[in-house]
Amino acid sequence: MKASRRPLPKAAVPASERALVAAIDDYRAGRLERAATACRTLLRHDDGNAAAHQLLAVVLLQQGEPAAGRVHIERSLVLRPDHLASLLIAGRAARAADDRAAALAHVERAVALAPDAEEPAYLRGSLLRELGDPRATAVLRALVARHQRHAQGWCALGEALKDAGDLPAALAAFEQAAAIDPRLAKAHFHRAVTLHAAERFAEAADSFRIAQSLAPDAAEIAFNLALTLLRLGTKDAAAQAFERTVALQPSHVEAWFSLGLVRQDLNDLAGAVQALNAVLAARPEHAEAAVNLGIVLQAQGTMEAAMTAYAEAVRRRPETFGPVVQALCGASTGRLWLDPAALRRSLARR
What domains can be seen in the chain, in order of their start residue? Predict the structure, then answer.
């Protein structure tokens, strides 16, 4: 008669294991804070629980705390050396903390332990590219040759090829990534950037729009779409894309400056003033913004405010004096100065 194997009574399962299982359940359900609290409670009683350190590290990384996560995954590795999943987590934690050399060391060990696995090879290639290592392209080519449906690997290969200046091959890699995973926003974004670099602006704009539909909260996609629309000469659409950029990322100074210039071109003077003031609020040393603010204020007929903006531009960057003179003399609302030295003195007094 075959003996049946019955599960252990609940009381026979150690409390630490039950606590860890509960923490894992919380993590899987998206209750990150509860999972972190459970792990910390468990570790206060058993600091040698490698799995709890690992889970807490994963939670902390997702919560945007790479330094704290790194402490716990390193502790987990001390307790479980050569644990493949922990090596990969340690690599990601070090990478998130901008310590790519340490990240690569962890990932290299993971590759040695699992030479045919996709994820270690992908992370190795990505890190080599970020470190500017010439081996990156070969490593990523080998990855996609072995794992031809690895969309992220194709995308990383495209980035390495673009870094090397091989735009046609990079474009082909990004298109392969997008074909494998049509919902991979990064593939469409990098395809669009490559098309823009090749001056295929209409195609680039279409690809940026696809990327934006997949990642609507990504300010950098909106910004690059705006730049492409400018190259296409569609200033109204470009202004809308720049406005979306600053709505998503109010600290995006380049977008505010570009928005100010486009609004100026569209004769939206009040909107241009608002955008250029936003630039100067974030970066007071931005002399070009001060010059353009002066030009817009001058166009509005508020000469005293315009002169103050011009004075700030020249104080921040003396070489802007020439554009200021040109702006003052070249518009019907300006002022004609026959003596440049007198103008310099006037601006200096403000």
Answer: 14-114 (1.25.40.10), 116-179+186-202 (1.25.40.10)
